[in-house]
Amino acid sequence: MTDLGPLADRTFAAVIFDMDGTLIDSTPAVMRSWRTWAVEHGITPEDLLFHHGVPAAGVVAAVLPDHQYDSALARINELELADLEEIALMPGAREALDAVVAAPHAIATSCTRPLAAARLRLSGIVAPDVLVTADDVERGKPNPDPFLAAARGLGIDPADCLVIEDAPAGVQAARSAGCAALAVATTVDADDLAAADLVISDLSAVRLVPTDGRIRIESAS
């Protein structure tokens, strides 16, 4: 049975999901695209470490000089949109989304809107009414802007939202926004997600349960 720790006795008005690594397994495609991009721009894999969960624009700005920014960003966007192979649902994702289908929920992703739409379509996920992408905010994760925008779109106080994330940058963004954070250790070690309220293996470890107009978490076993 999963120990729910500080989330055991809490309920929430809404759930905000990250997308890649949380709901959708796009890791093979992401790695292929960024590996190709890195080779083309003389970047080593080590140069890209610690940027997981950060929008492509933030990664490009961090590792290349300003004069290469526009062309380099356009190139990684092109590569990612061209590689949509092996896109699949993460464990427990379908059940989690089905559980909150009638409750306030949103997706806040570091993808561009075209890429998010493509990956959602291929994974069979219907985009929620509130979908926040990298194109919708001036500052992406680890800044709080994506989750603040999602909460605003839902009309709910960020403090009453549960964010589900797989990346340290996303957890940092959630906490900065004032949201509770449930982390899934699907793409990084659990120790790297220690800032979250609770870390689980993946969404199959818990159930989201609508109760009296709110959402609570239960152990799945």
UniProtKB/TrEMBL annotation:
<dbReference type="InterPro" id="IPR036412">
    <property type="entry name" value="HAD-like_sf"/>
</dbReference>
<dbReference type="Pfam" id="PF00702">
    <property type="entry name" value="Hydrolase"/>
</dbReference>
<dbReference type="InterPro" id="IPR023198">
    <property type="entry name" value="PGP-like_dom2"/>
</dbReference>
<dbReference type="InterPro" id="IPR051806">
    <property type="entry name" value="HAD-like_SPP"/>
</dbReference>
<protein>
    <submittedName>
        <fullName>HAD family hydrolase</fullName>
    </submittedName>
</protein>
<dbReference type="GO" id="GO:0016787">
    <property type="term" value="F:hydrolase activity"/>
</dbReference>
<dbReference type="InterPro" id="IPR023214">
    <property type="entry name" value="HAD_sf"/>
</dbReference>
<dbReference type="InterPro" id="IPR006439">
    <property type="entry name" value="HAD-SF_hydro_IA"/>
</dbReference>
<keyword id="KW-0378">Hydrolase</keyword>
